[in-house]
Amino acid sequence: MAPTRGYTLTWLGHGTFHLVTRDGRVVLLDPWVEGNPACPNEHKSFEKIDVITISHGHGDHMADAVTLGLKFKPTIVCNYEIHLFLQKKGVTTTSPMNKGGTQEAGGVRFTMVHAVHSSGIEDGGQVTYGGEPCGFVVTLEDGTRIYHAGDTGVHSDMALIGEIYRPDVALLPIGDHFTMSPREAAYAARMLGARVIVPAHHGTFPVLSGTPDALKAELKTLGVAAEVVPLRPGEALS
Ligand SMILES: [Zn+2]
After folding, report:
1. Domain presence at residue 1
2. What is d(CA 120, CA 21) in angstroms, rounded to the nearest whole number?
3. Within a domain: residue 3?
């Protein structure tokens, strides 16, 4: 299947996305695969991974970082504290950064941006400080920009993200309870100005009750013209 946009972006359920770029680079955003009840089994194994990004320290966003990091030796783009944690676990391919900065990995550019959430890392019954949560603006070889919001509430920095980076596609959590609901996500979409919104972080568990249809209704109420593209886990944006 030939990707129409020069890339293939597959939702693996929850906050996890698998991106294959035009030049064949494989990027895994928020590696939660093995224990992810929404991830189809046929998407749980990989031939290669060039880059992993981690938005924050919660297990449902980085539980497979150590396993996949040791196996594929991808560049792991994350905050400094998660980098220290992964180094302690023997993962040597981390490339830490902080908000406002951009780094290139595997021919793709990653800009770390603000998110409103928490980031503690649970490890052996203890909580390790995981730095600040973040999102990423991913700029592909052809200039396409994909904003992966991570887990976040709506916040006014999204207007700056929209103004500075002009994302083409925004991957937004809509599940409610731990992140934005569709109502807040519609305000986020208005600030971001992205043409395409892919809903994430919904439906994994009953408590994540926000739906793409509710997001569409909220966008209509606000008069935001963004197109909502609801994917099923395992389905790709095309
Ligand atoms: Zn979280």
Report:
1. no
2. 31
3. no
Total domains present in the chain: 1
What band does 5 get if pLDDT is binned at 50, 70 and 90? Answer: low
Give the separation between CA 148 and CA 170, rounded to whole angstroms: 6
- Domain with residue 44: its CATH number is 3.60.15.10
Q: Is residue 12 part of a domain?
A: yes
- Binned at pLDDT 50, 70 and 90, residue 3 comes out as very low
Mean pLDDT score, 205-209: 96
Residue 2 lies in a domain: no
For residue 2, pLDDT beyond 50:
no
Structural domain of residue 73, as residue ranges?
Answer: 8-230
C-alpha 183 to ligand 1 mean position (Å): 19
Closest CA to 13 of 221, 174, 234, 206: 234
Residues 114-161 pLDDT 10s = 999 999 999 999 999 999 999 999 999 999 999 999 999 999 999 999
| Distance in Å, CA 104 to ligand 1 centroid | 25
Q: Nearest-CA neighbor of 197 among 233, 181, 173, 222?
A: 173
Q: Per the confidence metrics, is the pTM higher than 0.90?
A: yes
| Plot region of 90 (φ>0 → left; ψ -120 to 50 → alpha; else → beta) | left
Q: How far is the CA of 19 from the centre of ligand 1 (A)?
A: 21
- The half-sphere exposure of 232 on its side-chain side, counting CA atoms within 13 A, is 1
CA 136–ligand 1 middle distance (angstroms): 15
